[in-house]
Amino acid sequence: MAVVNTDGTDKDATKLRIAFTLVVSGIECITGTVGSGFITAVYGAKWVRAKRLPIGDCILLLLSFSRLLLQFWMMLENIYNLLFPLIYNQNTVYLLFRVTIMFLNYANLWFATWLNVFYCLRIANFTHPLFFMMKRKILALLPWLVRLSVLFSICFSIPLCNNVFNVYVNSSISVPSSNSTEKTIVSETNMSKLTFFYNLGILIPLVMFIQASTLLILSLKRHILHMEGHATSSRDPSMEAHVGAIKSTSYFLILYIFNAVALFLSLSNIFHIYSPWNILCKFVMAAYPAGHSLQLILGNPGMRRAWKQFYHRVRLFLRRQTL
């Protein structure tokens, strides 16, 4: 349960923390928006030109676009939460922010999971008939599975509307020895329901993500043993593809675990709104989509080339403006 007093106590310290939180999370949001927006623009333009996209590019487009929405929504929530607490803590508004951020987090995790599954099926090299059958069927069904995951995200978010998050604002109370009044905002979370639905929503995609990553690691191990037996060069393309995919999935997994813990703590309302721990949770949540978007650009040779071209054009444009 979190309690917030909207009186004039410690105004200077509160204003400083609000400004610090908005500046740092704003920088993270802008960084992530540039990264996600760039990926969305590149694959969106490719989709417009070709009228269709390969399934891997389509998942990347959906992932980057959902990241854009998540970053905008988190920044909007921070602004309302910190600057307009009386509006933010109305039950309807409060519930809208909480449920929407859960839906976007679920959708992000699902899209990242399908991207990892796609990499695994395209890169991993197993001779077992079951793997070949799974590879053929999943790749054929992947467009439908991606659509289905959006429906799953909605289904896991909707139960959070039912008596999980509650907020109360009491009437104005006079402050003794002062001409001011205060309003006390009490935010309560049903922890048993939140824990159940939160874990239920992330369990299936997270298990799938870890399984796909494990298959990639096992495939890399087999490939290394094969290379040692045949004295193959260490710069083998399959080896580089394995290592690149494993680095990408490991980076995402680390970011997501930190984000999942921070998001759960933030939703549970165990910290005061202006406490350092609550502010840290906001920073971690904003760093997750920004960090993974940048990693997707740096880890993809095609995206790196497109970024260098974009950066070069921006520099030329700025140089011409200054002349």
UniProtKB/TrEMBL annotation:
InterPro entries: TAS2R
Functional note: Gustducin-coupled receptor implicated in the perception of bitter compounds in the oral cavity and the gastrointestinal tract. Signals through PLCB2 and the calcium-regulated cation channel TRPM5.
One annotated GO molecular function: bitter taste receptor activity
Protein name: Taste receptor type 2
TM spans (from-to): 18-43, 55-75, 95-117, 138-160, 196-218, 251-271, 277-298
GO cellular component term, pick one: plasma membrane
Organism phylogeny: Eukaryota, Metazoa, Chordata, Craniata, Vertebrata
Transmembrane among keywords: yes
UniProt record similarity statement: Belongs to the G-protein coupled receptor T2R family.
Membrane topology: Multi-pass membrane protein
Intracellular or extracellular location(s): Membrane
Record Pfam families: TAS2R
